[in-house]
Amino acid sequence: MSPRVVLVGLGAVGAGYGSVLRQAGIDLEVLADPARIARYGSRPTVVNGQPVAFAMVTSAEAPADLVLVAVKRGALEEAIELLTPQVGPGTVILSLLNGIDSEEVLAAAFPQATVLLALSVGIDAVRDDREVHYSSLGRIVFGEPANPGPRADQVAAVAAIFDRAGVAYQVPSDMVRELWWKYLINVGVNQVSAIIGAPYRVFQVEGEARAVMIAAQREVIAVANALGIGLGEADLDRWLEVLAGLGPDNFTSMAQDALAGRPTEVDSFAGTMMALGERTGVPVPVNTVLFGLLKAREAVLARR
Ligand SMILES: NC(=O)C1=CN([C@@H]2O[C@H](COP(=O)(O)OP(=O)(O)OC[C@H]3O[C@@H](n4cnc5c(N)ncnc54)[C@H](OP(=O)(O)O)[C@@H]3O)[C@@H](O)[C@H]2O)C=CC1
Ligand SMILES: CC(C)(CO)C(=O)C(=O)O
């Protein structure tokens, strides 16, 4: 029987990967509240210029085999509420959210299910209302904290779905380190791009924006090291290589939010860095400034 996949969050990331799964004939349902479904029905989702006919449900009859979560961090609690009837003991959950805490939150909400660690990297998806475009979907990196681990069968089942759909993926031996690498990426490029409203091209060359990005990322390395996670300078180089391949005119997810006047994921990036800096005794002055600027920006927009 074909595995049932449920996606919550039909935005840049969700519609990007969802369209690939859908085109491959994977049994995919988009889960959303009735108001969103009505809105999506009146304005179909278009991915790279092609309208995609997603199957939409407000709830499904049976638990899903795989749940993909692709909402912003601020909507995770709402997504969990929606997902509650869709998750059973056989359900595997992948969170494509950035940040390092969404899996913990999902695992606490769904102790009966398998919540793997996951991220997507090398993706440059941009959304404008119901239109999504990307030049690359990069790859989904997922697995248990250490692979292979006790949930190797569930990891293999997800890999089989991605193989069938042609979604690029990787199961690393040390997934915790990879999650922190992705966190390093976002703490740097997402926050600086959101403050200055700049696309990837500004970060692809030497200059002030790239220097501030790297300064914020070096703080992640220091905090990670204090917590026993072995990130280093080579991880910065690894990011710069990925960055060089992103669409120069595309924007990070956080810059998209900032430019559209939406709240950002700053609490998951600089906010978490400040809390971890306090816990580990590692100074995080760059992130403290980025936090202040992003919060001040949100306050100004809220008063308009
Ligand atoms: N964009 C990118 O290239 C990348 C983003 N990420 C991360 O992935 C996550 C998602 O980002 P992105 O796709 O850019 O964000 P988007 O804002 O484009 O998409 C989020 C989607 O979630 C939907 N949503 C919000 N609340 C609910 C709800 N209660 N029920 C159902 N759907 C809901 C929104 O619906 P609506 O539009 O109707 O409000 C929106 O379509 C973030 O954590 C981001 O940091 C990771 C890698 C790359
Ligand atoms: C790494 C990056 C910047 C794009 O893959 C991202 O994760 C985002 O836009 O949130």
From TrEMBL:
<dbReference type="InterPro" id="IPR013328">
    <property type="entry name" value="6PGD_dom2"/>
</dbReference>
<keyword id="KW-0560">Oxidoreductase</keyword>
<comment type="similarity">
    <text>Belongs to the ketopantoate reductase family.</text>
</comment>
<dbReference type="InterPro" id="IPR008927">
    <property type="entry name" value="6-PGluconate_DH-like_C_sf"/>
</dbReference>
<dbReference type="InterPro" id="IPR003710">
    <property type="entry name" value="ApbA"/>
</dbReference>
<comment type="function">
    <text>Catalyzes the NADPH-dependent reduction of ketopantoate into pantoic acid.</text>
</comment>
<dbReference type="GO" id="GO:0005737">
    <property type="term" value="C:cytoplasm"/>
</dbReference>
<protein>
    <recommendedName>
        <fullName>2-dehydropantoate 2-reductase</fullName>
        <ecNumber>1.1.1.169</ecNumber>
    </recommendedName>
</protein>
<dbReference type="InterPro" id="IPR013752">
    <property type="entry name" value="KPA_reductase"/>
</dbReference>
<dbReference type="GO" id="GO:0015940">
    <property type="term" value="P:pantothenate biosynthetic process"/>
</dbReference>
<feature type="domain" description="Ketopantoate reductase N-terminal">
    <location>
        <begin position="6"/>
        <end position="145"/>
    </location>
</feature>
<comment type="pathway">
    <text>Cofactor biosynthesis; (R)-pantothenate biosynthesis; (R)-pantoate from 3-methyl-2-oxobutanoate: step 2/2.</text>
</comment>
<dbReference type="Pfam" id="PF08546">
    <property type="entry name" value="ApbA_C"/>
</dbReference>
<keyword id="KW-0566">Pantothenate biosynthesis</keyword>
<keyword id="KW-0521">NADP</keyword>
<dbReference type="InterPro" id="IPR013332">
    <property type="entry name" value="KPR_N"/>
</dbReference>
<dbReference type="Pfam" id="PF02558">
    <property type="entry name" value="ApbA"/>
</dbReference>
<dbReference type="GO" id="GO:0008677">
    <property type="term" value="F:2-dehydropantoate 2-reductase activity"/>
</dbReference>
<feature type="domain" description="Ketopantoate reductase C-terminal">
    <location>
        <begin position="174"/>
        <end position="298"/>
    </location>
</feature>
<dbReference type="InterPro" id="IPR036291">
    <property type="entry name" value="NAD(P)-bd_dom_sf"/>
</dbReference>
<dbReference type="InterPro" id="IPR051402">
    <property type="entry name" value="KPR-Related"/>
</dbReference>
